[in-house]
UniProtKB/TrEMBL annotation, chains A, B:
<feature type="binding site">
    <location>
        <position position="249"/>
    </location>
    <ligand>
        <name>substrate</name>
    </ligand>
</feature>
<dbReference type="GO" id="GO:0006572">
    <property type="term" value="P:L-tyrosine catabolic process"/>
</dbReference>
<keyword id="KW-0378">Hydrolase</keyword>
<keyword id="KW-0460">Magnesium</keyword>
<dbReference type="InterPro" id="IPR011234">
    <property type="entry name" value="Fumarylacetoacetase-like_C"/>
</dbReference>
<feature type="binding site">
    <location>
        <position position="262"/>
    </location>
    <ligand>
        <name>Mg(2+)</name>
    </ligand>
</feature>
<keyword id="KW-0479">Metal-binding</keyword>
<feature type="binding site">
    <location>
        <position position="208"/>
    </location>
    <ligand>
        <name>Ca(2+)</name>
    </ligand>
</feature>
<dbReference type="InterPro" id="IPR005959">
    <property type="entry name" value="Fumarylacetoacetase"/>
</dbReference>
<feature type="domain" description="Fumarylacetoacetase N-terminal">
    <location>
        <begin position="25"/>
        <end position="127"/>
    </location>
</feature>
<keyword id="KW-0106">Calcium</keyword>
<feature type="binding site">
    <location>
        <position position="242"/>
    </location>
    <ligand>
        <name>Mg(2+)</name>
    </ligand>
</feature>
<dbReference type="InterPro" id="IPR036663">
    <property type="entry name" value="Fumarylacetoacetase_C_sf"/>
</dbReference>
<dbReference type="Pfam" id="PF09298">
    <property type="entry name" value="FAA_hydrolase_N"/>
</dbReference>
<feature type="binding site">
    <location>
        <position position="151"/>
    </location>
    <ligand>
        <name>substrate</name>
    </ligand>
</feature>
<feature type="binding site">
    <location>
        <position position="135"/>
    </location>
    <ligand>
        <name>Ca(2+)</name>
    </ligand>
</feature>
<dbReference type="GO" id="GO:0046872">
    <property type="term" value="F:metal ion binding"/>
</dbReference>
Length: 429, 429
């Protein structure tokens, strides 16, 4: 089925800003609370949020096989379960409804009042109920930087890294949408030179600049997903800030991997940009440096040229952009990740989230974490206001943005913006 | 509120086997499919499964604050969210309904036909929707055995082990109830002496004898659970077989922990035995060998004397019991695990599952995995039929059982029984 929603020449009758992340060619999906305190599934064009539940009730999706309440839900999971064909039909239809040549909704003031919201009238929610969250470790530059700092500069990459898209399970319950603040975590750390751990607030709180893809129901227990089918099960992507506490991580992570250093929060951008919308921005990833086992051999352009940036804003101050990176730097692509994840028969369901791991580029200004940018604190970073940062400080806000741009076309993700609060103080009883 | 359901002198009017795991003092909770293909929440007394949805509709829970459909669900999550007070009211009421002195249901043949099922009339389901699954590593004997085999016999325990209830996130989507067979996983392994990995079926498939506890909604993002409150948030326990592929694990697990070696399946016993039912079997755990940080200091008897055993049954053959262990061997108790898990503010929700890690005892006949029992294959285990096992073979069935017993009282978990099938063969298209 052709993705007519991607037609680059289409314009919309909505009044939208130039160079928006959300032109009529994007049509992402999200969940929001409306001014009437109703939860609905919606999309966004320019700075309008569009209530798909209302549009469906008004008959605008007639002819597409959808249950009546498919958009009147507090998560996208059921819609995502409907599969790629349905996602395409819905995106194509939305493009038609808002096409500048289509006057049906444009000239129906009553319907427009019901369907359209400005951004200040809504509150974005987590777009999916995340059944399982996996985080990969797929940027070679990031893995090399971390290996150099914490292990051995001469053998920074571990022996399995070039053979396996290394990943581990994360915590679903602490995945939160942009805008929800996070408390600095407390925990055990081992001070340099000490033999006994101490307890207290983490002193090395960090962000990780990542993206995450969201899957549909992919396979039954026991059944691997062949790599050439993997993209059929990917609904879309979000920006992903995988908050980390480096000092807690260092003490706890051997031998079973990171746990409390990571599971206090991961923040996501609220609009899922579909894989379909990213089609024009396909690109090749890095060439494999070792021969791959057959189940990991992917063909064609399986990466995407998505420009990423991360900024830090001190309380009341202005933003400083800390780094620019790109999704295409990832050594392992999403098809490889999903094929690997299921090669043992692990089932993948609708709403599962798969993080890329920190996406660092080849140059120091493209590193995706404070750990790398400040080189574990040895090179403090100067902010616009003159202050310095080695890691994230209380009341700092971290902002990540991402967008594709080529030949005047832009498809963006908006942002994920999260404030770090001081350590949680229990209420007196 | 007193737990009258635990009255040791109570007898039931139901005809139940002597020495059953499920006397009227147990009253576990599970989910089953009835002969009429209806999903309901139920309990078990002797070899009867009891439809709580039907009991509630018939008015037997009048006076207890429950929503009408609380038991007419395909998971226990909402009931568990109702909290400890409600669980107690319901267990106490069930005990009254089936008390030998109570003739109300006993003499109502119509009601009994609706409410009571024999075990062959029902099909047990997974009792909860597992939002997040964490696996701890809390048996010192197991951690020591594994450290001795894979790292350094002189420093078998890693430096953090006596300070932290080490744990990691597992995969929720592959948690399955007893009776569902599991395919031998395929994956990458590094043969001894090789420098490049190979692909194929795992040759070292293993079980892990564990238990898991199930939580209720415990805390908001950012908010730790104090250790003295931890048990308020524990609904109950199940037997837990954490299937493992040792050869895949060895190659993949550095530095982020086990992934595909574990996430192909974990099998649970279908009846959740409540923490309340286990009250009479409280016991002290091992004494801490290092001073604990205050947030991990627990008071009183926080462990439970639960006898565990694991058996292996070859295709068509008889069972061989491989090991006897006990939940009380765990160095870290559940309160410590939950306090640690949330000390950084990680939110815990209803239906979350927390595995103990393999529970090995002090003697070689109490080890909880084939890895330890056969000492990584060096000491093959003789089965009743004369054959030998180093690890689990295709078409072997692994059976785990657990029960508390003291002074003539017994509260049991039944069993978790899982057959290992050969590698999955894709259907020809």
């Amino acid at each position: 089925m052709s993705i007519t929603a991607n037609d680059p020449n289409r314009k919309t009758w909505l009044d939208i800003p130039e160079n928006t992340d959300f032109p009529i060619q994007n049509i992402p999906f999200g969940v929001f609370l409306t001014r009437d305190d109703i939860i609905t599934i919606g999309t966004r064009i320019g700075d309008y949020a569009i209530d798909l539940g209302a549009l469906h009730q008004l008959g605008y999706f007639d002819g597409i096989p959808l249950t009546d309440d498919i958009f009147l839900q507090d998560t996208l999971n059921d819609f995502i379960s409907d599969g790629k064909k349905t996602w395409r039909l819905v995106r194509n239809r939305i493009a038609e409804i808002f096409d500048i040549k289509n006057t049906t909704l444009k000239e129906n003031q009553d319907h427009k009042t019901i369907v359209l919201f400005t951004l200040d009238e809504i509150e974005m929610q987590l777009p999916v109920l995340v059944g399982d969250y996996t985080d990969f470790y797929s940027s070679k530059e990031h893995a090399t930087n971390v290996g150099t700092m914490f292990r051995d500069p001469d053998n920074a990459l571990l022996p399995n890294w070039l053979h396996i898209p290394v990943g581990y399970h994360g915590r679903s319950s602490s995945i939160i949408p942009s805008g929800i603040p996070v408390h600095r975590p407390q925990g055990q750390t081992l001070p340099n030179g000490a033999t006994e751990p101490v307890f207290g607030p983490s002193r090395l709180v960090d962000f990780e600049l990542e993206m995450a893809f969201i899957t549909t129901d992919a396979n039954a227990l026991g059944e691997p997903i062949p790599i050439e089918e993997a993209e059929d099960y990917i609904f879309g992507l979000v920006l992903f800030n995988d908050w980390s506490a480096r000092d807690i991580q260092k003490w706890e992570y051997v031998p079973l991997g990171p746990f409390l250093a990571k599971n206090f929060a991961s923040s996501v951008s609220p609009w899922i940009v579909t894989l379909d919308a990213l089609e024009p921005f396909r690109t090749e990833g890095p060439k494999p440096e070792k021969p791959l086992l057959p189940y990991l051999k992917s063909k064609g352009k399986k990466s995407f040229d998505i420009k990423l940036e991360v900024a830090l804003q001190p309380e009341g101050g202005e933003e400083t952009t800390l780094a620019h990176s790109n999704f295409k730097y990832m050594y392992w692509n999403m098809s490889q990740q999903l094929a690997h994840h299921t090669i043992n028969g692990c089932p993948v369901n609708s709403g599962d989230m798969m993080g890329s791991g920190t996406i660092s580029g080849p140059t120091p200004d493209s590193y995706g974490s404070m750990l790398e940018l400040s080189w574990r604190g040895e090179k403090p970073i100067k902010l616009m206001d003159g202050s310095e940062r080695k890691f994230v400080e209380d009341n700092d806000t971290v902002i990540m943005r991402g967008y594709c741009e080529s030949q005047g076309r832009r498809i963006g993700f908006g942002e994920v913006k999260t404030k770090l609060l001081p350590v949680f103080q229990p209420k007196k009883k």
